[in-house]
Design a protein that fits this description.
alpha+beta; 268 residues; single chain; four-stranded antiparallel sheet
Length: 268
Amino acid sequence: LGFHPSLSIKHHTHRMSHPISKARKFVADGIFYAELNHFLAVQLGEDGYSGVEIRTTPDKTEIVIRATRTKSVVGEGALRIRELTAIIQKRFGLKPNSIELLVSAVKRRGLCAIAQAESLKYKLLAGLPVRRACYGVIRFVMESGAKGLEVVVSGKLRGQRAKAMKFRDGYMVKSGHSVNDYVDTAVRHVMLRQGVLGIRVSIMLPHDPTGEFGPSKTLADVIIVHDPKEDSEPQQQTFTRRARPAAAAAAPAEAAPAEAAAPAEASA
């Protein structure tokens, strides 16, 4: 069925009666996720499986499966999703109705590294040349809006000598904390007759302020230069005449009658 034979540990959830240490719980959750991811990748690889998310609630555990072809994952009359639910319950010893499988569609398939790695894997299994298959993936990813892409295929590509071929396009961040936010990476193995080929697909996601198709956080080395503000017209200054003191205003009034009497005496 796709489960690893050497893993026999049961999933430790909050429904267990006896307490469990945090270290053991983290290890058990990690093993549960790894085994579940491997099982779903084997079962739903041809249906565009693109990852899984586990949500734990007080009532039940929700497993959200991301895929490009959701109708094939659900199956006719939800038969396939019920079969997967029964297999997972039996494998991990979970109680009935304690787990629920949900299916979520991938909004943009060209920006999902897992979907592109699976697509490249089945192209190589079909006998398509490596160079042609990789260039087809690069063209599709770059047309979907990615900032950069790197595809590495290693193994016995043509002869008996193993080698690695690397294909690049666009801009790719290789170091710093931005790699965790902007670069989506997936690794797959192709079982061919001449040997095993390794595939690694790395996609540089675009910046999206809404966070729907890419990270909303800007890159660390991006500097945004804002336009200068428009200069506003200077305000016109208005001056008000200050009132003079009362003594200064009375002195000119007394001098005015004396000046008027002087011309009268001169005329006489």
